[in-house]
């Protein structure tokens, strides 16, 4: 058994962990919208206006902070006016990106906003730059957010909504380097300035415009965008064409054509996955470093609005629907990502897991009227106390908890901490597949009271939840936390995730 010491200074506060780091993503892809969020008003599944209520209830328990829609690649073939007005009069369309299926546009702008209201979450709308127009996106902003008398406000009222909505987050395109137009960075950056100019602030609705950014470690793309708003090394406040730039990165271990099974993997495959997941630290550091040169005051946000694992689809399902199972391995990918997100809280403002329901690393899987909460869902729920908390640096002595994985060095212990409302929340992941680890939490600058802890693990990494076994992987109370003279000590089982919460009396 390895031993690790984690030093946490309870009285030295870091940046706030934005609640938007726990954001979600819903694309018109497979069964995410239709059959996931939307079942229609005539469904026997309990719904409100066609929106599936068991899904809403499950997501509300996560304090879901935002929801990105309608894509993804789908966003750049979506024309929003086709999704408003009486549903039986809406034109149909072909979803050419995902399964080449026909859609009836029954889930559109009003349905999405109703969903966000039921969830108590902020909408994040990704606009069409790839096949749309500046006018189209400008009018969408007006339709949603303008009060008073204007063409789009009148159209909204004709469709049943008198008052405007508050819609802060707007994506200026999606993956313009790929499915969003196969553009060069320079051309995409020019379009970002142009589109952002005509996405107006109406009334008290102030937009947070997010320019379509890089894939993975394409730091040149980020540099090109940052050059649009400031000069190299300048200390002046950046121009406000856009308030953030995005980046996308997925955790994969195979090739694009053969990504590997979501459930049929061995221990070696697991370790390669975790080494891949930890690469997000290097990627975020790289983009942040480039941004610091042009924006040393960190006024511009970095948004990781697509992340998660990507495996081969489950056998027998539509390859274009991206339906995959979700195991303890996926849960540990999520817990590791959150530790890294918290580390980058000074620059990273938002992150959106791909995707919320029935697609890729989903929170929820539905099968008819059955609903399953995945192991990844439970990581989000266990970690929700970090939302809008003050980050605390965690210094690890992990010489004992490392292993070589190919050319990479994998830390098999991951941790982060925050403080809010007089309590500390510490998240710890043991990434060792086979061995427990003893962790000493060396807590300085304050005294902690009686801790409570929860554990998420399974007897095998491949275990997952299903309609027949919905609680194979669920959090349980953990009594393995013991006080010491300097803090707490706990022994984590192999491949496990633990959260520890305790009241704090700070030293004076």
UniProtKB/TrEMBL annotation:
<keyword id="KW-0326">Glycosidase</keyword>
<feature type="domain" description="Alpha-L-arabinofuranosidase C-terminal">
    <location>
        <begin position="305"/>
        <end position="496"/>
    </location>
</feature>
<keyword id="KW-0119">Carbohydrate metabolism</keyword>
<dbReference type="InterPro" id="IPR055235">
    <property type="entry name" value="ASD1_cat"/>
</dbReference>
<dbReference type="InterPro" id="IPR010720">
    <property type="entry name" value="Alpha-L-AF_C"/>
</dbReference>
<protein>
    <recommendedName>
        <fullName>non-reducing end alpha-L-arabinofuranosidase</fullName>
        <ecNumber>3.2.1.55</ecNumber>
    </recommendedName>
</protein>
<comment type="subunit">
    <text>Homohexamer; trimer of dimers.</text>
</comment>
<dbReference type="Pfam" id="PF06964">
    <property type="entry name" value="Alpha-L-AF_C"/>
</dbReference>
<keyword id="KW-0378">Hydrolase</keyword>
<dbReference type="InterPro" id="IPR013780">
    <property type="entry name" value="Glyco_hydro_b"/>
</dbReference>
<dbReference type="InterPro" id="IPR017853">
    <property type="entry name" value="GH"/>
</dbReference>
<comment type="similarity">
    <text>Belongs to the glycosyl hydrolase 51 family.</text>
</comment>
<dbReference type="Pfam" id="PF22848">
    <property type="entry name" value="ASD1_dom"/>
</dbReference>
């Amino acid at each position: 058994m390895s031993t690790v010491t984690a030093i946490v200074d309870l009285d030295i506060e870091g940046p706030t962990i934005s609640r938007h780091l726990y954001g979600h993503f819903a694309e018109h892809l497979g069964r995410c919208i239709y059959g996931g969020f939307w079942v229609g008003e005539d469904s026997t599944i309990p719904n409100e206006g066609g929106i599936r209520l068991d899904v809403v209830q499950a997501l509300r328990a996560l304090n879901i902070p935002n929801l990105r829609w309608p894509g993804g690649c789908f966003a750049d073939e979506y024309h929003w006016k086709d999704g408003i007005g009486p549903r039986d009069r809406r034109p149909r369309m072909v979803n050419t990106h995902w399964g080449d299926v026909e859609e009836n546009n029954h889930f559109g702008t009003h349905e999405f906003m109703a969903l966000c209201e039921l969830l108590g979450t902020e909408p994040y709308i990704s606009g069409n730059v790839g096949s749309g127009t500046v006018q189209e996106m400008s009018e969408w902003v007006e339709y949603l957010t303008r009060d008073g008398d204007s063409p789009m406000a009148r159209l909204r009222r004709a469709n049943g909504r008198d008052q405007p909505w508050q819609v802060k987050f707007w994506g200026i395109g999606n993956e313009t380097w790929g499915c969003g137009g196969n553009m060069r960075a320079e051309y995409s950056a020019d379009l970002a300035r142009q589109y952002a100019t005509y996405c107006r602030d109406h009334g008290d609705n102030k937009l947070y415009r997010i320019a379509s950014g890089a894939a993975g470690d394409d730091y040149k793309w980020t540099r090109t965008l940052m050059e649009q708003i400031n000069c190299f090394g300048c200390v002046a406040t950046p121009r406000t064409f856009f308030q953030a730039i995005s980046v996308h990165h997925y955790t994969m271990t195979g090739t694009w054509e053969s990504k590997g099974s979501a459930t049929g993997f061995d221990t070696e495959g697991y370790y390669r996955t975790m080494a891949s997941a930890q690469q997000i630290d290097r990627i975020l550091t790289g983009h942040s470093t480039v941004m610091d040169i042009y924006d040393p005051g960190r006024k511009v946000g970095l948004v990781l609005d697509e992340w998660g694992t990507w495996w081969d689809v489950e056998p027998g399902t539509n390859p274009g629907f991206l339906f995959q199972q979700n195991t303890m391995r996926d849960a540990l990918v999520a817990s590791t990502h959150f530790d890294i997100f918290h580390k980058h809280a000074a620059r990273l403002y938002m992150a959106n897991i791909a995707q919320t329901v029935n697609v890729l690393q989903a929170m929820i899987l539905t099968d008819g009227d059955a609903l399953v909460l995945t192991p990844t869902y439970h990581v989000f729920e266990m970690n929700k106390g970090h939302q809008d908390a003050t980050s605390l640096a965690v210094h690890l002595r992990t010489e004992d908890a490392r292993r070589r994985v190919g050319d990479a060095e994998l830390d098999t212990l991951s941790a982060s901490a925050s403080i809010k409302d007089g309590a500390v929340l510490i998240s710890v992941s043991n990434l060792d597949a086979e061995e427990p680890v003893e962790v000493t939490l060396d807590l300085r600058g304050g005294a902690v009271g009686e801790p409570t802890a929860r554990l998420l693990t399974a007897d095998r990494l491949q275990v997952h939840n299903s309609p027949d076994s919905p609680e194979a992987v669920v959090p349980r109370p953990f009594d393995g936390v013991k006080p010491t003279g300097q803090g707490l000590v706990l022994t984590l089982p192999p491949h496990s995730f633990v959260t520890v919460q305790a009241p704090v009396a700070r030293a004076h």
